[in-house]
Amino acid sequence: MNESNDRLVDEYLSYLQFERGLADNTIASYRRDLRQYGGFLRERGFSAGHVEQGQIRDYLDTLIGGESPPARATLARKVSVVRSFHRFLDREGLARGNPASGIPLPRRGRRLPTVLNLGETRQLLAQPGGGAPAALRDAAMLELLYGAGLRVSELIGLRTGDVDLEGGFVRCVGKGSKERVVPVGEPALAAVGRYVARGRPLMGKSVKSDHLFLNRFGRGLTRQSIHRLLASYARKAGLKKTVSPHVLRHSFATHLLAGGADLRSVQEMLGHADISTTEIYTHLSQQKLKDIYYQSHPRAKR
Fold first, then answer.
1. How far apart, in whole angstroms, are the C-alpha atoms of residue 133 and residue 153?
2. Which of 24, 25, 218, 299 has the most CB atoms at less than 10 Å from its CB?
């Protein structure tokens, strides 16, 4: 990028970081996309503050027509970044209008997430057995991942005071450093209580962290270790599906909606900024109904 473009991008990224509170990984992704866009502008002698819609369309045509065109989801992200960048420049008076306002987002195919049914969920949650400290820890982790719909990053970020055993809720910090409070059911609260009383004090020779969930050295767990533990328990449970922390989060949302929860409440519990993100679970429930109908109804042969 030329110096002017560099300055505009830096101002936009600072806005995302300090005013929007976006995560470092998200900002890094925006920076990569804008660097690619800036390279296109630089080669053609354009400034981001004076670009026209035709040049933006040329940029997208270049992406689509290249030797390795991006996947639809990646292309949609790149278009969204460019649109958001120019909207910021226009709003802050750093450009003459918003040339990206008429650029549509590519249609994205929506793949329904993997979920566990209630029977599979019970099988999985029953796997960590016995009173060993690691088993008590794993049982509490699985119950919280499913019982509160936590992301794996939220789980490993929990501190000892973040689960209120008497009040019946967990406090976690989600995307964009946004804090939320999620109610937790009795099985999860009981599992966490057993771990805190009889498991956590014995994790390692000495506890070296205030994280709630610890490894055998008394330090906080990593997301990789949680993925490995979950995969191991899924195999022991005889599940054919690939199970990850996010599968438990998807299952949490789907089971809530199937049980009659309203969409806004599920959005709050998941920490989604936009309700359209939560709506994927309503489609999932509709698909389940269709599957049951086609499997069961005598006149439903396709």
1. 22
2. 218
